[in-house]
């Protein structure tokens, strides 16, 4: 797999925080926020090379693929190529393939899917990230900014019976913006 790029722009984070683009803590916070986002949605979000996966048909009409969005796809069932638009359809943004006119036949590893997926992430001439959904960028920038502003170490202190918290919850990435973006791009892995 290619090097995973941050899911937001260092230029934007520098502008929000008053730090420089090359600041080591800024770069680290951006990478950490991107890593956490990818971990919570269960896929890289970055455009892939062609992948071949085998899936088991369970007699259902739709199958969720382990990455999204779908860029290119071909499907075979028991070695026979299917025609997109005639035999199956796709919901590219959701990473779903649907059998048209029936259900996927039952069997173990009987469905072969060759596909590419993800977003073609590229920084523009100004260092801003292109082709990454804005809600992902906003959530990652928000968490990276929090990570820059919360010092590691003691997160709360009790003095004379009163406890004061210093941003411990913030470092978990639990803002509403974060939760909404994760929900929009999360793949629910089956057990």
Structure description:
The protein has 4 helices and 11 strands. By secondary structure, it is an alpha+beta fold. The protein has a 4-stranded antiparallel sheet, with no helix packed on it. Strands 2-6-5 form a 3-stranded antiparallel sheet, with no helix packed on it. The protein has a two-stranded antiparallel sheet with strand order 8-9. A hairpin with a 2-residue loop joins strand 10 (156-159) and strand 11. Helix 2 crosses helix 3. It is elongated and about 65 Å long. The model has no long low-confidence stretch (mean pLDDT 88).
Q: Would you tell me the overall average pLDDT? A: 88
Count of strand segments:
11
**Major sheet strand order:** 1-7-3-4
> How does the major sheet shape up?
4 strands, antiparallel
Unreliable spans are none
* Rg, nearest Å: 21 Å
Helix content: 25-40%
N- and C-termini, Cα separation: 24 Å
List the helices and strands and how they pair.
Blueprint: H1 10-17, H2 24-41, E1 51-57, E2 62-64, E3 70-77, E4 80-81, E5 88-91, E6 96-99, E7 107-117, E8 122-123, E9 129-130, H3 134-149, E10 156-159, E11 162-165, H4 176-185
Helix pairs in contact: 1-3, 2-3, 3-4
């Amino acid at each position: 797999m290619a090097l995973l790029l941050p899911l937001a722009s260092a230029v934007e984070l520098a502008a929000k925080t008053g730090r420089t683009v090359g600041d080591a803590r800024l770069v680290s916070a951006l990478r950490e926020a991107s890593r956490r986002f990818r971990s919570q949605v269960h896929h890289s979000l970055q455009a892939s090379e062609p992948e071949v996966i085998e899936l088991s048909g369970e007699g259902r009409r739709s199958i969720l693929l382990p990455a999204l969005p779908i860029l290119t796809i071909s499907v075979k069932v028991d070695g026979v190529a299917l025609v997109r638009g005639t035999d199956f359809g796709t919901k590219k943004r959701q990473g779903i393939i649907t059998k048209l006119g029936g259900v996927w036949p039952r069997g173990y590893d009987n469905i072969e899917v060759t596909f590419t997926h993800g977003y073609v992430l590229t920084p523009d001439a100004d260092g801003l990230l292109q082709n990454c959904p804005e809600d992902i960028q906003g959530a990652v920038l928000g968490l990276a900014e929090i990570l820059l502003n919360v010092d590691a170490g003691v997160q709360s202190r009790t003095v004379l019976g009163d406890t004061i918290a210093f941003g411990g919850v913030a470092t978990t990435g639990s803002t509403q913006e974060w939760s909404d973006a994760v929900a929009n791009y999360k793949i629910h892995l089956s057990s």
